[in-house]
From TrEMBL:
<dbReference type="InterPro" id="IPR057336">
    <property type="entry name" value="GerAC_N"/>
</dbReference>
<protein>
    <recommendedName>
        <fullName>Spore germination protein N-terminal domain-containing protein</fullName>
    </recommendedName>
</protein>
<feature type="transmembrane region" description="Helical">
    <location>
        <begin position="12"/>
        <end position="32"/>
    </location>
</feature>
<keyword id="KW-1133">Transmembrane helix</keyword>
<keyword id="KW-0472">Membrane</keyword>
<feature type="domain" description="Spore germination protein N-terminal">
    <location>
        <begin position="32"/>
        <end position="203"/>
    </location>
</feature>
<dbReference type="InterPro" id="IPR008844">
    <property type="entry name" value="Spore_GerAC-like"/>
</dbReference>
<dbReference type="Pfam" id="PF25198">
    <property type="entry name" value="Spore_GerAC_N"/>
</dbReference>
<keyword id="KW-0812">Transmembrane</keyword>
Length: 216
């Protein structure tokens, strides 16, 4: 009887191991050169639709090292619209040959519309939280003119996602503010239905500058 139970346990263990192995291989089976990396994500909400911009890079060699050195070529795709984040994301995927990789996301930029609409805001948080690759320590910013930011971003050499999180020169010398992380948005919203004050991105003399956002 014990022998039968042991064999049964072995079978269950073997089956479980096979499932885990299959999932692991499936997730890791996509080659780096077959991935499109999102370094920044900008989101706004207007007239019942999400407006989404992915700041992407077709990296496939020494990703982390190139990010640190600023040798990454990031480009922001054209504005995507959808009644949900999933719809906007699917539109983006349909225009790409490669798999979208959110594991190197560095900056999340939110517009006024998404911050004012509570349902849309929660929909965004739910969408991001459902993606295991999106780290909770992604830095979050506010920008009142995302379209202008996208135009300026295309003219600068340093990728937006890297610039916002790695370059102290983009901050005012008079103010030093702690970064706001995505995990703080989760915590405040799901526990208190509140939003943190976010560092604000502005375009000054055709340059991207980060300032403290006034307290609400």
């Amino acid at each position: 009887m014990k022998k039968i139970q042991i064999n049964k346990i072995r079978c269950i263990f073997a089956a479980s191991l096979a499932v885990v192995t299959a999932v692991f291989l499936n997730g890791c089976g996509i080659l780096l050169e077959d991935r499109t990396f999102a370094l920044s994500l900008s989101v706004d909400y207007k007239e019942g639709e999400y407006l989404v911009w992915y700041g992407i890079s077709d990296l496939y060699d020494e990703v982390s090292e190139k990010e640190e050195s600023g040798e990454v070529n990031e480009k922001s795709e054209t504005e995507l619209k959808g009644i949900s984040m999933e719809e906007a994301r699917n539109k983006f995927l349909s225009s790409q040959e490669n798999e979208l990789d959110m594991g190197h996301l560095k900056a999340l930029i939110l517009g006024k519309g998404i911050l004012k609409d509570q349902i849309a805001y929660e929909g965004l948080l739910n969408h991001l939280e459902a993606q295991p690759a999106v780290a909770s320590n992604v830095s979050v910013f506010f920008c009142n003119e995302i379209e202008a930011l996208m135009k300026t971003e295309r003219q600068q050499e340093i990728p937006l996602g890297v610039y916002l999180t790695k370059k102290p020169k983009n901050q005012s010398k008079k103010t030093v503010f702690p970064p706001v992380k995505l995990q703080e948005l989760y915590r405040l919203w799901y526990n208190q239905k509140k939003q943190p004050s976010l560092p604000e991105i502005k375009i000054l003399q055709e340059k991207i500058v980060v300032q403290n956002k006034p307290e609400k």
